[in-house]
Amino acid sequence: MMVRSEQELAALVADAADPLSIRGGNTRGMAGQGAALSVAGLSGITLYEPGALTMVAQAGTPLDEIEAALAQENQRLAFEPMDHRGLVGSQGSPTIGGVFAANVSGPRRIAVGAARDFLLGVRFVDGRGVVVKNGGRVMKNVTGYDLVKLMAGSFGTLGVMSEVSFKVLPRVETQAALVLHGLDDGQAVAAMSRAMGSPFEVTGAAHDPAKGQTVLRVEGFEASVAYRIGRLQTELNDMAGEMTVLTASEAGAFWEKQRDVAEFHGEEGDIWRVSCKPSDAPALLAKAGAEAHLLDWAGGLIWLRMAQGSDLRARLGQFDGHATIVRASAQTKARVGVFHPEAAGVAKLTAGLRAQFDPKGVFNAGLMGAVA
After folding, report:
1. Were 153 and a residue from 224, 226, 312, 370 both cysteine, which residue would form a disulfide, CB within 3.0 to 4.6 Å?
2. What would the DSSP string read from start to end of 20-49?
3. Is residue 368's pLDDT more than 80?
4. What is the DSSP track for 122-150?
């Protein structure tokens, strides 16, 4: 069923006795159990103030529509949300509500923050069918529950978002990328760590071991980009025997593919994402036994293509981070669990929050936790 107004959504939830599977464009493969409830009918930009760098949109507004409106004003979603369709084989159109519900953040997260850091305000319907509003159109401190941050990454388990307000940023004049060739995983993490610790404002740091490429992105004014690329070459000269530079168009194409994990599109196997300390990445990769892998976030995000049915968490053991299934069979998801098991204290807190916001337990049954 599809709702077309907040009032209709609230009434439907208030009357619900059985589980509801909340979805927008249903493009990320993360829908919970129950009867499908689509908010794609809640669509449209309700307020856009380019001078204030803020936008308000209904939750079902297609992401393409958001980005087109921003492009007309030379602005963008700086957190670079990933498009999951090619990776999970889904159809439809991603929505702005889905982006924030799943806290979808791309390669630039290491420089500007996650999707949740740009979310200013939310309107949502809780499990009782009550419309709740929190936040506004400016960044400010709040008291009590920070529901804005709580809803981001909750995957619709605490409430159904009907409207979001968020911060946008200007587009950059140009970009370039420095490519270090021939590094292994450990060397790549060390090089990316040094680059991120430099004063040269790197906004992307990724490593593709299959191609032997470690790629560092620099953005800004043309003269500044050229200067910083040159300084990075000097800074990293002792870590790579060969370095090349990608032009703006080449860098743009690379980072779009990196954002969407295009290397794994059409490839067989289960897809996992692991969030960890960058320094832990090489050791975790050694334990994983993956068929292929990619590093992003300077090593803090690992994408792995595993043999079908693999339990990656059992292979990795305890580590400071979490492993999430992005693509696998329904049987594997049921057996292993999509999200990393929560620590006892966190699980108790999560259960308390869900009891508070969804006392009937109707929202996205079967989905637990959230990803960073």
Report:
1. 370
2. EEEESS--SS---BSEEEE-TTS--EEEEE
3. no
4. EEEE-TTS-EEEEE-SS----SS--HHHH
138: closest CA among 128, 148, 130, 125?
A: 148
Helices (H) and strands (E) in the chain, counts: 13, 17
Residue reference for tokens 């953040």: 105
| pLDDT (tens digit per residue) in 195-241 | 999 999 999 999 999 999 999 999 999 999 999 999 999 999 999 88
Q: Which two tokens stand for residue 344?
A: 């006892």
Token couple for 43: 């669509």
pLDDT recorded at residue 367: 67
What is the C-alpha separation between 230 and 224, in angstroms, rounded? 10
Question: How far are the Cα atoms of 86, 272, 325 from residue 207, in angstroms, in the given order?
Answer: 20, 16, 21
Check: pTM over 0.85? Answer yes or no: yes
Please name the amino acid found at residue 349. Answer: L
CA–CA separation, 315 vs 191, rounded Å?
27
Residue whose tokens read 């004049």: 173
Positive or negative torsion for Cα 287, 216, 71, 123: positive
Dihedral, CA of residue 172, residue 140, residue 67 and residue 372, to nearest 10: 90
